[in-house]
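Check this.
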Amino acid sequence: MPELAAAIAIASLGAMLFFSAAIAPTVFKVLPEAHAGSFLRAVFPRYFLINGLASVVAGLLAVELVAATILLVSGAVMLGIRYVAIPVINKARDQMLTGAETAKTRFDTWHKGTVVLNVIEMLALSVAATILLV
């Protein structure tokens, strides 16, 4: 099962890289800001849910303890972003649009945090897949 776990981790990593490098930047270039925001607001919960579940499944299939731990923790973080951070970010964004003064700081802090965690997740998936395939 380590090869299947690695394949799932690599597929998730590929989806994350494609979304981060191609989809998200393109959305802001071709759609008006309000539409881009609405689109990404609909996509990001699914992005984190699907990639989080993929990491958990890969972690359950991994036979190597370190790789399994990395994948399970990564999955938990992604699901945490989905169910905790995204609602906070969305609420802060809504408050920004109504002129709440502290909302921008809260939005920026949580958004930057999720971006950093997303990069860490990509690195973690790479490490776990490498462990499983070596």
Observations:
- The chain has a mean pLDDT of 96.
- The two ends are 14 Å apart (CA to CA).
